[in-house]
Amino acid sequence: MPRRRIGFWYRFAAVICKPPLVVLLRRDWRGMEHIPAEGGFITAVNHNSHIDPFAYAHFQYNTGRVPRFLAKSGLFKKGFVGAAMRGTGQIPVYRESTDALSAFRAAIEAVDRGECVAFYPEGTLTRDPQGWPMTGKTGAARVALQTKCPVIPVAQWGCNELLPPYAKKPHLLPRKTHHVLAGPPVDLTPFYDREMTAELLKEATEAIMAAITRQLEEIRGERAPETPYDPRRERIEQRRRTQAQTQTHQKAGQTVQEEGLGK
């Protein structure tokens, strides 16, 4: 399957976006040799800053294999941004609607056409306090197992120092370095030709996230936590803590009231 041409809109976006990225960020990019020269594939990338999609797209644009990101559908609707999103072939995600599965189908079709689909398996900016990858969602694994395409794990670090997660103002000085390390394809062959159950997708997703985390460990020169941060588990624990605190306050109030009546 030949590679798709970059096209006008991607080149136009590069003309606009590359100059500020070059000014703001130094580059330490490694692993470009793992980006397939031909055929469809997936890149699975960690997400730790609102600007890292632009910086990562810069990295992959320079490989000659431009990524098709999955992005929320609202960005496609109108204006210049919408035209650019449509023109560059990004894939709209319609959350909580009858079209919710269309992004999955579009990703498979893009891979079958010989394109690269870039996934942020975490689904959002990491909430891990130290910036490590969280547990992943199963979309990338589902497309990979359906198409049996290569999945390239990619770790990045540095945009989060320029613009930390959920921050409103960038830290421009000193100039930050955008580190990218792409690794060899994740071995998902043990999951091929099996019933695509929730457990199978979970295991395949864990294999993808573990590969991304290993790449980030190499960049940072330190070990990640043994258990990835799980937003769902954290929400459950937070509710339990809130309920426990509420019960404690209620008991304390009841005790005070009883003591007052006793007096």
Could you name the key traits of this structure?
acyltransferase activity, globular, Plipid/glycerol_acylTrfase, 1-acyl-sn-glycerol-3-phosphate acyltransferase, 8 helices, acyltransferase, transferase, alpha/beta, 263 residues, seven-stranded mixed sheet, 44% helix, 7 strands
Give the H and E element order.
Answer: HEEHEHEHEHEHEHH
How many E-type strands? 7
Any idea what the radius of gyration is? Answer: 22 Å
Mean pLDDT, nearest integer? 89
Give the neighbour order of strands across the main sheet: 1-7-6-2-5-3-4
Main sheet attributes: strand count, strand direction, barrel closure: 7 strands, mixed
Helix content: 40-55%
The computed structural class is alpha/beta
In DSSP terms, counting alpha (H) and pi (I) runs of 4 or more, how many helices? 8
Estimate the global geometry from the Cα principal axes.
globular
**Amino-to-carboxy terminus distance:** 86 Å
What share of residues are in beta strands? Answer: 5-15%
Detail the poorly predicted runs.
none
GO molecular function, one term: acyltransferase activity
Keywords: Acyltransferase, Transferase
Pfam families: Acyltransferase
Organism: Streptomyces lomondensis
